[in-house]
Every structure is written in structure tokens, then in C-alpha cells.
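User: Predict Major histocompatibility complex class I-related gene protein-like's structure from this.
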Amino acid sequence: SRSAVLKYMLLVSHSDILFCTVKHSMTVFFTASSGVPNFPEVVAVMLNDDVEVGYCDSKLKTAIPKQDWMETLRDEDPKYWKLYTGECTVHQQLFKEEFHAVKKRLNQTGAVHIYQRLTCCEWDDETDKVSGFNLYGYDGEDFLTFNMETQTWIGPKPQAVIIKHLWNNDSARNIFFTNYINQVCVYRLKTNLKYGMSFLLRTELPSVSLLQKTPSSSVSCHATGFYPHRAMMFWRRNGEEIHEGVNHGEILPNHDGTFQMSVDLDLSTVTPEEFGNYDCVFQLSGVKKDIITKLDKAMIRTNWGEPEAGVPAGPAKLKTEVKVRRGLAMPEGLSSNKGWHAPWFCVLAACPTASEP
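Assistant:
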């Protein structure tokens, strides 16, 4: 059913969103579906530094710019945009044919199925080093991964074995993906960056709130509106980071291109007298100051009952202080990939509203 497809696409977890963590990146995300009425058979989304910049689908005749500076690129370099549109159209057709071939090989030609490809190139503008990856997903799970160094495909699922052998024997296919990542993808990335550098290199600090659903539930330290996505948030007690009783939420995209995240603190063992010993720390890559929010009962925003005396009924003005720190060491590489729920496809490409059958 349609809702079954959307469950694959709308269930987003932290591990599902693949972020390229080097200086600059371009990601192309294709999603093909079968058995879904009134929906494009193939959708493609292009991202620069994890920001959606272009979109096309099997119902459109041209690619659509998703940022003002991409519209400028389209208008000032129509030849480039024509090539991009042509590439998008050709890749859609090839991807659709590949999808049908895979279903046939797996003897799954009927019902609803989802087929996805995520291709990313990464470029360090200081060292000029280029790297990348190519991943496939099928019906919400990892399917095949291309190892550029060994020029081989890796498939963790038994159903992927037959496809893996076919692709490993297809040297032309492997050469194509290697050249695409090392040359075409990087060329597009650098061209787009010329127009979007000021936007992509900006820094936006978040608003931070303390939230609590019920009097007995955990307190959530919630940050929203920050950019870039490379951020960390944690709870401290007496100036030391704590892990027990702490639950880290996922980093999720907002519709305006910024991000949000939260981290919960279990208060079951914390007495009111100890609240002053706790604070929430938000750190943003490239910013040398922490945003520190004290755990203050008067500043916790709730959604039950009437506000207590002295507690603002609207958004609370937090007791937030900023302290200088030494810097944020962000891990290199990519976040783990444990599932395919197409977060960018749905959040950025305007998924239809799910409805129960």
C-alpha cells in the first residue's frame, strides 16, 4: 500500500542520515518506487554540503533549482544547467531500468518496492583530496556498497549475492562510477560552490530550550535553528560530562535548511536541590564558544497544567551563558549506515502525506 512505502521513507533515525563530514561534498540521492499510484516513479535530489540544491523526477522535463544561488547559476550558465538536466533525465531512465532488472532477478516484480542509490563525492579544498562512496538500498535495508579502492561491490544481504556477482563482473559499470565520483561529481560540486559559498559557509547559532512532557518524564535540552549540522550536545554535572541517565537524540533537518537536535536527562535520581549542579552544553563546529543552559526548574517549558507562579506561560527566556572553549574536534569519516528510510527524499523533496489504507 501507499502507506507502507511512506513508512520506509518517513521513519528517520540518526544513523539513517548520511552526512559527509569533510570540507565540501555533493550527494545525489535517487529513489525509485513501484506500486505507488500518483507518485513519480523516480525522484532525484542533489545536495551540496547536506543542503538541497536541485531536484528532478520522472514527471518533470527539467531539473529544479532549490536555492536562490542555484537559480543564479541556472540563469548565468544555461549550458551547465542543460547538461545537468540531461544528466538527471538519463540517469533516471537508467536507474528505472536497473530497478526493474533487480526486481526480476529477485523474483519480486509485484507489490510495492523501493530502490535507492546514494552517491557522494567529498573534496577537501585545502589538500585537494577527493573521496566518495556509492550505496544502494532495497526495501528499506542496505543492499550493495561499492568499494572504490578494490573496484568491487559488497552485499551484506543474501538476496544481494546474485546482483553482487553480476556487478563485480561488469568492469564498465565500475569504471563509470569511479569516474563519476572522481571527475563529474567533483566538477559539479566546485561549480555549485562558486555560487553558494557564502550560503554554505555560514554559521547559525540555535535557540535552546528545556522541555518536559510530564512531571515525571525526562527533561529534554532541545536546540533548533543551527547550521552547519556538525554539532554536539551533552549534559554535565558539576562541570563534568555525564552519560548515565542521558539519551541522545538524532540530528534532524528543518525545512529552512537548518538543523535541530535534543538530549534528554532522566530526573528520577535528581533532587530539586541538585538542579543547580547540572547544565546542558551545545557545541557547533567552527564556533569556539559553548552555549550553556543551566538546569532551572523555573525555565522548563511544559505542556501540562497551568504555569507555576513566576514561570512565563510562553517561550521561556533561558539562563544561558557563553564560555570560550578550546575548540571542537569533529570525527572524520561518515556516520554509520544502518538503514534506508530516505530522510532527504521525504524531508527535502516534499513527500506526500501518509494516509492509512
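The radius of gyration is 23 Å.
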